Amino acid sequence: MPNIKSAKKRVLVNNKKAEQNKAIRSEFRTAIKKVDALIKEGNLEEAKVALSAAFSVIDGAASKNIIHKSNADNKKSRLAKRLANAEKAKAE
Questions:
Q1: CA within 20 to 30 Å of 19's CA: 9, 11, 38, 86, which one?
Q2: Hey, is 43 helix, strand or coil?
């Protein structure tokens, strides 16, 4: 445990920020899982709505530097592609 006052504060601030980052990361992972689950169930209309919500959450995580912007773009692209493939398969 640190002895210097500023070092003690850094420990507290770092722990608080780690909790906030963990919550944001959890939220964006949950949003992705929700879209995937809806696609597997075949609820494509609900999946489209969840997809736009997931895009928002993913962009928020990228803007807060929880994930890199390129990583966010890749995740959004893959999600959109999964939904498009599901729609294409359902149409056939």
A1: 38
A2: coil
- pLDDT tens digits for range 44-62: 999 999 999 999 999 999 9
The domains of the chain, with CATH numbers, are 5-91 (1.20.58.110)
Tokens 């780690």 — which residue?
18
Return the number of other C-beta atoms located less than 10 Å from residue 8's C-beta.
12
**Can you tell me which residue has the tokens 């969840």?**
50
Instruction: List, run by run, the mean pLDDT of 10-residue segments along the chain (92 residues).
Output: 93 96 96 95 92 96 96 96 92 80
Model-level pTM? Answer: 0.86
Helical H runs in 1-92? 5-41, 44-63, 69-91
**Residue given tokens 């966010």 in the structure block:** 72
